[in-house]
Amino acid sequence: MKKLVVVLGAWALAGCGGEEAAPVAQSDCSLPDCEAIESLGTVGRPLHAVGTDALLGFRGGKGEKGDLFFHPIGSKAQAVASGVFAETVAVDPAGDVVLYLEPTGTAPTVRGEPVGVLQRWNVHSGATTQVLGDARGAAFGVCGDWLWSWHGGGTFANCAWMSAQQISTGKWVGLGDSCDGWSVERLAWFSRDCGSLVTAPGTEQVGVGVTHLASGAQQIVGAGTGSFLASPRLDRVVAPDGASGQLLLADLLTGTERSLTEGWVSGQPWRFSPSGYALIYQVQDAEDGNHLLLLRDGGEPVELSQGFAFVEAVGFSPNERAVAWVERSLADGRRHLWLQDTESGVRVEVDGDAFAGNDSSIAPVVDDGGAFVAWIDRDGSLRLADLARDTSWQVATGVDSFLFVGERLVWSDGTAGHVVPLPRS
Fold first, then answer.
1. What angle do CA 32, 37, 39 make, to 5 degrees?
2. pLDDT (tens digit, 9 = 90+) per residue, 183-219?
3. Number of other residues whose CB lies within 10 A of the CB of residue 130
4. SS3 content of the chain, % helix, strand, coil (to 5)
5. What pTM was computed for the model?
6. 399: closest CA among 370, 377, 368?
7. What is the rounded CA–CA span in Å between residue 288 and residue 158?
């Protein structure tokens, strides 16, 4: 597999539709068809894809309240809510429902997360329905006919009750309590069919809870608190294994469990493959530091990388043969974007000085199909790599946020939004 080649070219873009977008320099784009780029006007900051042909946008400053709007690509934007935080929004994977927190105050906890009214907005009818009056932070989600929320809880602890609601009937299912510890990336994961939910450990639920929503039946996996991860079909779960930093992989269909951290100091799960039969996770030892490992179903872990400071993003190709990730090097302090063929073991450096950060809007992302990777390079330019063709292009400069929406890449420079179809071969 040859090293990726960056192709340079030129393009021009004039604003169209709504408010005129600022023109972009011709030297900013090297895509095969730069003329395919269209303006979204003053889209503000793109937050979430809604289905494959629309997105949620946000107008307002970072960390401040602003306006939330629904923008079908190619049509006029529609206002959804005002006075909300960009971080407290969730979208149904099918693109039917949007959840957002209407803030009324701040929780008296260490983190001081916002609290308020959880609202449900129907994408098709435009109707808004109140769900809860005491929701907390960005801890909620929606999938199909079900939604979950973290609400109420103690005054000085980052623990609260977890509940799920069936949208069509209004039926609530209690899920116990969950605690938002520093090592917990998210508090709950839906199964791909939306019928089950896995929830973070709490003070009463010591271990990861897996609940079948229709029946309310629940089982506990693992013990203790810490990072956890669920496969897309929710047939495999990575859970804390008692001691701090220890992990186990549980197969919910067979009932078998295996340790992921035996012989290691600690571990952190990163991502399951689209089928759920492969897992990437990180472990640490006292001598060589961090290791990034790939575990296939029934096999032994294969090392992808070792000796780095930390990993920031991971993604699979559609056929699960290629893996892409961004790691911060201990040797030079730079962030490197890597691609590896998991069968041949050949590793390719996509970008030797990629930029990433804590803000999820600028972290590298892989498209839903796993064929493209988009990231911001050290010069602040948005780049797009085609993993199948081993080629990357510069898309634009001055980009502050971006995401994939179906077969398109959408980005914003803070004042105007732009969209371009993915350059399929």
1. 170
2. 676 889 899 899 999 998 887 767 899 999 999 999 9
3. 10
4. 0, 55, 45
5. 0.78
6. 377
7. 34
